[in-house]
Amino acid sequence: MKPQTRAVLIDPVQIEVVVRNLVANGLEAAGAGPSPRRVTVEIGPGEAGFVRTVVRDSGSGLAPELREQVFEPFWSSRATGMGIGLAISRSIVEAHGGRIWAESGQGGVFGFTLPAVHG
To answer: Is 109 exposed, middle or buried (CB count within 10 Å of its CB: 0-12, 13-18, 19+)?
Structure first.
């Protein structure tokens, strides 16, 4: 069976900003402890008509009550964080007709979807 390919229309610079923010946050969240830091990026089909990108890290994860708060401007869990990376990422993804989210649990999980081009 041939793998399904879906195309998306994006501003590549803007989507690069989103992916860089999520990967950089994942690397920082994974820390510099005794075990190696791990960040993975998965891209594939999402719900009908969308392409899904998920960034996972080996950090401690996100508390459930922070899932929406992390996307608010100027909110940061880091002492040196400006709190604008995820807010900017949300604006970019939504301007492309997509959705961005965070999941709680073991390790950090942030994902976004973008509408696929039909035809």
So the answer is: middle
pLDDT of residue 65: 87
Question: Using CA atoms, how far apart are residues 50 and 2, in angstroms rounded to an integer?
Answer: 19
Query: What distance in Å separates the CA atoms of residue 66 and residue 87, rounded to the nearest whole number?
Result: 14
The model's pLDDT over 64-112, given as tens digits with 9 standing for 90+, comes to 888 888 888 887 766 667 778 999 999 999 999 999 999 998 889 999 9
Give the CATH H-level superfamily of domain 12-115.
Histidine kinase-like ATPase, C-terminal domain (3.30.565.10)
Displacement of CA 91 from its chain's centroid (Å): 12
Pairing of the two strands 39-45 and 99-103 = unpaired
